[in-house]
Specification:
The protein is built from 6 helices and 14 strands. It is globular and about 65 Å long. The strands form 3 sheets. Strands 2, 3, 4, 7, 8, 9, 10, 11 and 12 form a 9-stranded mixed sheet that branches. It has a 3-stranded mixed sheet with strand order 6-14-13, with helices on one face. The protein has a single domain (1-343), classed as 2-Layer Sandwich (D-Amino Acid Oxidase, Chain A, domain 2). The chain has 349 residues and is α+β, with helices and mostly antiparallel strands. FAD binds at residue 181. InterPro entries: DAO, FAD-dep_OxRdtase. D-dopa binds at residue 319. One of its GO terms (biological process) is D-amino acid catabolic process.
Length: 349
């Protein structure tokens, strides 16, 4: 939807967005509703992700400050590092985020190193900065609405092979296909990217308010178990997570893991339970499972010429889809405009 919205600002493009799942759906194939979602930079030096994060932050910042109905608000983000997490699944995921002199110190507002007195007892380092948290239940419909406002045609459909995509366009054909299929890129005929795999995450949504976002570089409960807390905008509740289980397709909530997730949150952020200090004070809305669309080698954003026409790819965004969304969309926009300039097309996408 981000790519469609960015492209829809070009009046010479006729865009049809086809998707099996839409905002309002909750399905294990559809990662977006399950996400926190926030902006915590994790891109490594020279990676597409870092470039996309840099390009995305100004747009999220603008939307947050100018468009309250989009469901984004500002929150302080507190990041706690533990030396013993180096090399674990979560530690590797967050290794850039945990640095006291990170690349994003001049990107994120109000960045500072936490005093030792501000750290939880188990943590060695910490930083704080101003970021955003997104209520996905509000933001996704808003994003879809902006696409509709700009004359993007929205259709439900199931595409088994990429060659079927042009037939779903309102014109019955398309000059450019943009593949943004996330995790399903590993199963889509004509793509079948074997580097794509699920990174299972499990969360709880509670009504309690933490006062800030918190995350640690790992936990003592296992190398793939994480601790993060973020309060969604516009009454969306507080998301507590989680885990990063590579290659796990299980869609069902693990009750034992759910208990550990809640306990870890209370240990790190006692302000969640100010009356009793106990997990039982947490008011749970629901537990959930989402599958991050991971990809060995990182995000794929590129183009290729096929017998079906130009095929553009934008997938493999793992657990950072929102915070790299506009950067990816701008890169897709550039590819589309390059094709148009080269071939003089009035494109159907």
């Amino acid at each position: 939807m981000s790519s469609s919205l960015v492209l829809s600002k070009h009046k010479n493009l006729s865009i049809t967005l086809v998707s099996k799942h839409m905002p309002g759906d909750y399905d294990i194939e559809y990662a977006s509703p399950w996400a926190g979602a926030n902006f915590m930079p994790v891109g490594s030096e020279g990676s597409k992700l870092r470039a996309f994060e840099k390009a995305t932050w100004p747009e999220l910042d603008r939307i947050c400050s100018e468009i309250p109905e989009a469901g984004i608000h500002y929150q302080e983000c507190k990041v706690y590092g533990r030396k013993k997490d180096e090399g674990t699944a979560v530690g590797i995921w967050f290794q850039e985020l945990m640095k006291e002199d990170p690349w994003f110190k001049d990107l994120m507002p109000e960045f500072r190193i936490l005093n030792k007195s501000e750290l939880p007892p188990s943590c060695n380092t910490g930083t704080s900065f101003k970021s955003v948290c997104i209520n996905t239940a509000v933001y996704l419909p808003w994003l879809l609405g902006q696409c509709l406002k700009n004359n993007v045609v929205i259709k439900r459909g199931i595409i088994d092979h990429i060659s079927e995509a042009p037939s779903h366009h309102t014109a019955g054909t398309a000059s450019i296909i943009i593949n943004c299929t996330g995790l399903m890129a590993c199963k889509l005929g004509g793509v079948m990217d074997s580097a794509v795999y699920p990174g299972r995450g499990q969360i709880a949504i509670v009504r309690n308010e933490p006062g800030a976002m918190h995350t640690t570089s790992g936990t003592d409960d296992g190398p793939d178990e994480a601790m993060y807390i973020m309060q969604r905008a516009a009454g969306g509740g507080t998301i507590i997570g989680g885990c990063l289980q590579h290659g796990n397709w299980d869609s069902q909530v693990d009750s034992s893991l759910a208990n550990r997730i809640l306990q870890r949150a209370v240990d790190i952020c006692p302000s969640l339970v100010p009356k009793t200090g106990k997990v039982t004070e947490l008011s749970v809305v629901r537990h959930g499972v989402g599958l991050r669309p991971m990809r060995e080698g990182g995000i794929r954003v590129d183009k290729e010429s096929t017998k079906h026409g130009w095929l553009l790819h934008s997938y493999g965004h793992a657990g950072y889809g929102y915070q790299s969304s506009y950067g990816s969309a701008f890169a897709t926009e550039k590819m589309v405009l390059d094709i148009l300039n080269k071939e003089g097309l009035k494109a159907r996408l």
